[in-house]
Design a protein that fits this description.
Elements lengths: L2 H6 L4 H7 L6 E3 L2 E8 L8 H15 L4 E6 L10 H7 L4 E4 L23 H10 L2 H12 L1 E8 L6 E3 L13 E3 L2 H9 L3 E3 L6 H7 L4 E2 L4 H7 L7 E3 L9 E7 H6 L2 H35 L3 E3 L3 H18 L3 H36 L1
Helix pairs in contact: 2-4, 3-11, 5-13, 7-12, 9-11
Length: 360
């Protein structure tokens, strides 16, 4: 489906019209400045760092001939408005989690994370050496975007709860913050699912507007202060086993750049993806120890809950299979996941179990 026919069927038609009057990016003495909007509040641990890393790397590698000005959520547009801002030309690029935009197209979930989906390494394998990047690009063409992976949180925690979860029925009526297809799966278990920007989650949890939340993992969650509100923390979740972040540029803007500047954006995004993953993984272990020392009870969902997560997740996928592009992405994604997982389990998986056994 081409972009024009798709947009006629969506609420983005107004954005498409605005794109026709796309303002040229700012120039100063031959240099070019691009405005980046983000889904992240300024200073949010890890995720805002990834956006700033992309911007700083682009500026540095271009010798200042291409400068990126970063606007945190709310400084130019709201966190969930960045997609439309870039497709319409109000901003030049965004950094965010693409699963926030499943309302524009459900296929965007695959480029952050889908429930029971890929780990960070499996996602990188598919994206950089399979068809992931090409499918991201095909999806972006519909909306006038050129997108790249630009960060990764690694495996995300199952979340913070006001009480322990003993079975699937405990989700019935639970007010819980979870975006993307994972949130839709929780909804099938009876949860009242909220999709809140990261900067609003603490207040919602503290006020009782929500009963629980997932955010990222020990380091970012500790920085957010959720341990001040509740002590029940599930450290493994089904919803985001390796959440990718995206850097997306308005395609008309991207196409107007020199080949050198285009390559700089691509490389800056890829470098931020690896750098950000290492940042999260490096900080999570020590943060988890601090949380436990502060009285946080780390828990695991029982198998009955995992089974319910799985059934609900597959139902969500099935509901989206009528969309041809979603199905195309899913049918490419799953074989890559299984192939990568099979090798990692037989190599690194065996090694890690033996290492833990030998070293105690």
């Amino acid at each position: 489906m081409d972009r024009r026919s798709f947009l006629k069927k969506t609420t983005l038609g107004g954005g498409a019209a605005a794109a026709a009057t796309l303002a040229a990016p700012a120039y100063a003495q031959g240099n070019r400045t691009l405005t980046m909007v983000t889904t992240w509040g300024r200073g949010l641990a890890g995720v805002f760092d990834a956006a700033q890393r992309c911007a700083d790397s682009i500026t540095a590698m271009s010798g200042g001939s291409l400068t990126v000005e970063v606007k945190a959520a709310g400084e130019l547009v709201g966190a969930f408005e960045v997609f439309d801002a870039v497709t319409s030309g109000q901003a030049d690029m965004y950094h965010g989690a693409d699963y926030y935009f499943v309302g524009q197209h459900p296929g965007y979930a695959f480029f952050t994370s889908v429930p029971f989906g890929m780990t960070a390494q499996e996602l990188a394998n598919w994206y950089y050496h399979g068809n992931g990047a090409a499918l991201h690009d095909e999806l972006g063409e519909i909306f006038g975007l050129k997108s790249f992976l630009g960060g990764n949180t690694g495996a995300q925690a199952g979340g913070w709860f006001a009480k322990e979860i003993n079975g699937p029925d405990d989700f019935n009526g639970l007010k819980f913050r979870m975006p993307g297809l994972g949130g839709k799966a929780l909804g099938k278990l009876g949860a009242s699912v909220q999709n809140l920007p990261g900067s609003e989650v603490y207040q919602a949890l503290a006020s009782g507007a929500i009963d629980g939340t997932e955010w990222i993992g020990p380091w970012a969650d500790e920085k957010a202060g959720f341990q001040e509100i509740t002590k029940f923390y599930y450290t493994a979740g089904f919803h985001e086993p390796g959440a990718g972040l995206s850097l997306a540029t308005n395609r008309e803007v991207f196409d107007s750049l020199s080949a050198e500047h285009q390559k700089i954006i691509e490389i800056a995004a890829a470098e931020a993806h690896q750098w950000n993953l290492a940042q999260f993984l490096n900080n999570n272990g020590a943060a988890l120890q601090r949380l436990q020392s502060a009285g946080v009870k780390t828990l695991a969902f029982p198998d009955t809950v995992w089974d319910a997560f799985g059934e609900a997740s597959m139902a969500v996928h099935e509901e989206n299979m009528s969309d041809d592009l979603y199905k195309k992405i899913f049918d490419d994604y799953q074989p890559s996941l299984k192939a990568s997982s099979a090798w990692i389990e037989k190599s690194e998986g065996v090694y890690r179990r033996q290492r833990d056994r030998v070293l105690g």
